[in-house]
Amino acid sequence: MTMKQILLITVLLISGLFAQNSNDDCMACHSDESLNTTRNGKTVSLFVESGRYISSIHGSMECVDCHSGFNGADLPHKSGTNIHKVDCSSCHDIASFKGSIHGTKNVECYSCHTKHGILPASSMTNGRVELCMSCHSTGSVKQFTQGGHYKAYKTNNRVNCVTCHGSNSHDIKKVAFNKFTETQLCNKCHATHNTQFSVELHSRANQAEFPKCTSCHGSHLAAVNRFSRNSQECMTCHMNPTIFHPKDNDKLVNFIKTYQTSVHAGIQTNGVEAASCADCHGNHTAEGLDASKNRVKRENINATCGRCHQDALREFNASSHGLASRKYKDIAPVCTDCHGEHQISKVKSPEFAKMKIKEMCMNCHVKNEKVLKLTKAKGSDIMHYESSAHWKALKAGNEKAAVCSDCHTGHAMLPAKDPKSSIHKSNIANTCGVSGCHVKEKNAYNVSIHNKSLKEGKEDSPACADCHGNHQIESPNRFGNQGAKKSVYR
């Protein structure tokens, strides 16, 4: 205590003012910012900001209403230990607080309400999160300000700590949520999502290792970034072989693992997030493989892929493959038959090298008897490609050499008799003469009498395939050395 404080107390004692114990008497000393004491070896300030106290909810009360048994004439003002403790229960019903996690941990009322600038609960609402985080600022709690709940809190105070951790500020619960109590809690706000989640695969699994809300969304972070949450959180469980049937676990885990190196697992160069697990499988509506509305069931997979790849789906739906897929679901290809499932690769990647495209197409159009019967084609006719100039050039390392998709396109394949087909007689010159292939030959043909006659409607006029063949494209050697010198495959 300073000499100034000692002199002030001496004057007050002589004048007998302390006998009144009024707030003015107390503030005569406690308005001094330098007034302090030592408690448990620590220096503790005894300064009270008068204006803040007067404007508080307790402003009309006398100091001794809370600090009972104090005698201003004595130093200290009260005998015993912990004389600074205040019993709020003399005025306030704090039974629920005593039973809360804060009460059992002996958290003092002033930790939230402050000591002298007491504010009513109604005026503390908007600052509740910041108030809680003044103590709870470690671990995952500090992530709260980065998540979707905090955004809702700052926007219209829809979510704060009490929303999840207690029915009111005094009834804060211990963090002991299980799968079912947590779901019930989240459903108070997310009722629509509850309706979806209640019928999906994860919800029906009662095992403890199956996910609850925070397993995917996080607790305090409640992130909305679908790439970081959906895929990474899904992988945490689905790459754990212990949660799958022993007969299938290794095979299934390895299958799921291929997603990590797929084009979907990356971020596109323009900053748009690539496809996450939930984009294909659904989030709250993820269903088992037998579910009729399952997004990744074979009859639904095209529509699922088309949610992002709209142009490709539009072309595919109008193609021979797309039209057949509506009628022959067990025969016609779907997106994943060509592109794969989890291991989706870029079209310009080694996985889609021309050599592999040829094998992919022939698996159906040469080896599948159902396809051959449906298309009324002969596998031997298609196998002629393996003796063609195109195939020989491709095997020799010429990546410009044509493979199936170069002529038939990747998604818009149509029969040759269809005027919109890339191999229709009126279009085939442009198909063969695409940039990087037979450009000079196309230009020459376009000014020829053959093309002129074809445009006049004389369908027996020859186009490229009439002379060079279809799948069995022959080298210009058949026309003599002059033609051979001009071959792009020499």
Describe the structure.
With 490 residues, the protein is mainly alpha-helical. Among the domains are: 3-122, no CATH class; 379-490, no CATH class. The chain is 43% helix and 2% strand. The model is unreliable at 11-20 and 482-490 (pLDDT under 50).
Descriptive key words:
mainly alpha, 2 strands, 32 helices, elongated, 490 residues, two-stranded antiparallel ribbon
Strand order of the largest sheet: 1-2
Portion of residues within helices: 40-55%
| Overall 3D form | elongated
Q: Please work out how many helical segments DSSP would assign.
A: 32
According to DSSP, the number of beta strands is: 2
- The rounded distance between the terminal residues' Cα atoms is 103 Å
Describe the main β-sheet briefly: 2 strands, antiparallel
Unreliably modeled segments: 11-20, 482-490
Mean pLDDT comes to: 82
Strand content: under 5%
Could you say which structural class the secondary elements and strand pairing correspond to?
Answer: mainly alpha
Layout of SSEs?
Blueprint: H1 3-15, H2 23-30, E1 36-39, E2 42-45, H3 50-54, H4 63-66, H5 95-99, H6 101-104, H7 110-113, H8 121-124, H9 128-133, H10 148-156, H11 161-165, H12 179-187, H13 191-197, H14 201-204, H15 213-217, H16 226-238, H17 249-257, H18 277-281, H19 301-306, H20 310-318, H21 320-327, H22 335-339, H23 354-365, H24 369-375, H25 379-383, H26 389-395, H27 404-408, H28 428-432, H29 439-446, H30 449-455, H31 464-468, H32 481-485
Antiparallel strand pairs: 1-2
Helix pairs in contact: 20-21
